[in-house]
Design a protein that fits this description.
Radius of gyration: 24 Å
Structural class: alpha+beta
Strand order of the largest sheet: 2-1-4-3
Order of helices and strands: HHHEHHEHEEH
Number of helices: 7
Helix content: 55-70%
Largest sheet: 4 strands, antiparallel
Distance between the termini: 36 Å
Number of strands: 4
Length: about 180
Amino acid sequence: DAFASQLTSRLAMSPALYRQFVRNEVIESEIGYAQGNVKRPTDAQLQGLYQQYLATASSATLSAIQVRSQAIAEQTAARLKSDPSQFDAVAAQVGGSGSQQAAQPQKIPLNQLPADLVATLQKTPKGEIFPYVVDNGGAKTYLVIRSGGVETPTLEQARPQLEAQALQQATTAGKKYLT
């Protein structure tokens, strides 16, 4: 009943229509596998897809305070290492108005971070606070970062999404075959 209610409200689709929609997709994908030259992915292929998937699926949770200099970054990091509970208060005090900071944890895909920061984060324990310098062609930005850890989905966690990609290819091939 809850599922039927959710279908009706979120997808504007009755349970009977949804069953027919799923039935059609299953039939089309099976035709795609059987007649459309689409192969079910092997475990080795899924492993390869998983390696590609990791580039965008792995993320780091970070909190950051932007400061004006390397010295302030090092002093602030040392101060916060001695009392990590003060991170938000120090962010408000040191950052001041108009600074770019994310005192609240932000989840950021690893592929959007500098390679040296990713390497540091992968070696850094969760909760560690450290100074970091972003060098963008001579323009430097000084940060104090608190690591919330790096998340990397396992193959088993990613398997449904990876298999869904292959299933979509089979469904497309099945529709084309039927047409």
